[in-house]
């Protein structure tokens, strides 16, 4: 064996003259694939609600009007699906989790995200904070299409896209980590695309 290790850097390609760098094993998607584990739930915005539940059982709830009344941001971010497509510089509009967490008192270290339809996904609470996550309701200047998670989805672009729960309903804050839907059946618990944490043991 050669003493020199062969490292696999992220794929480098050219797009519009500018060099882009993708996480290892990813390819560039030009379209916007739809990946859903079940049927698309249709949630009327007049019945929509979002709640954050703390480890002590305290509930903070927002109606659709409440969400739209909060200051919003327009993140432009790269997204990376575990099935290997990436999409660069996607444009969203939504509310930062920092804003939603402002009045929430919690000693929790973990979050379990719940979607309409039953999907769940888990992540450390700190990965939702400090400008890293949003509840988004617009994509590319239009209302978020139901297939892509409308009326509102979570956006956590620094982790594989399965963590970005579509049709978000609530976030449960927990003292102990609890695996979500894909994490329970063998996906990586954390899912850092730059470390290629696709499956348990990666
Ligand atoms: N509620 C819910 N959220 C979900 C999923 C899902 O099946 N249900 N799939 C996840 C996966 S695996 C990916 S890659 C992205 C896909 O989002 P898109 O369909 O908008 O591309 O949503 C994530 N969020
Ligand atoms: Mo995915």
Automatic annotation (TrEMBL):
Pfam families (alphabetical): Oxidored_molyb (PF00174)
Family annotation (SUPFAM superfamilies): Oxidoreductase molybdopterin-binding domain
Xref: InterPro entries: OxRdtase_Mopterin-bd_dom, OxRdtase_Mopterin-bd_sf
Residue span, Oxidoreductase molybdopterin-binding domain: 38-182
PANTHER family per the UniProt record, alphabetical: OXIDOREDUCTASE MOLYBDOPTERIN-BINDING DOMAIN-CONTAINING PROTEIN, PROTEIN-METHIONINE-SULFOXIDE REDUCTASE
Protein name stated in the entry: Sulfite oxidase-like oxidoreductase
Gene source species: Fodinicola feengrottensis
Taxonomic lineage: Bacteria, Bacillati, Actinomycetota, Actinomycetes, Mycobacteriales
């Amino acid at each position: 064996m050669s003493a020199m290790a062969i490292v696999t850097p992220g794929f480098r390609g050219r797009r519009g003259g500018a060099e882009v760098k993708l996480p290892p094993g990813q390819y560039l998607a030009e379209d916007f694939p739809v990946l859903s584990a079940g049927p698309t739930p249709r949630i009327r915005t007049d019945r929509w609600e979002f709640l954050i539940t703390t480890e002590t059982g305290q509930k903070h709830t927002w109606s659709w009007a409440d969400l739209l009344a909060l200051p919003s941001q327009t993140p432009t971010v790269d997204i990376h699906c575990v099935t290997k497509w990436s999409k660069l510089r996607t444009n969203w509009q939504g509310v930062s989790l920092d804003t939603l967490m402002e009045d929430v008192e919690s000693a929790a270290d973990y979050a379990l995200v719940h979607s309409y339809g039953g999907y769940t996904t888990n992540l450390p609470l700190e990965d939702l904070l400090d400008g890293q996550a949003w509840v988004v309701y617009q994509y590319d200047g239009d209302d978020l299409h139901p297939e892509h998670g409308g009326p509102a989805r979570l956006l956590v672009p620094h982790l594989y896209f399965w963590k970005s729960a579509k049709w978000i309903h609530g976030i449960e804050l927990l003292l102990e980590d609890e695996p979500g839907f894909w994490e329970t059946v063998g996906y990586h618990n954390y899912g850092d695309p730059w470390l290629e944490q696709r499956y348990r043991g990666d």
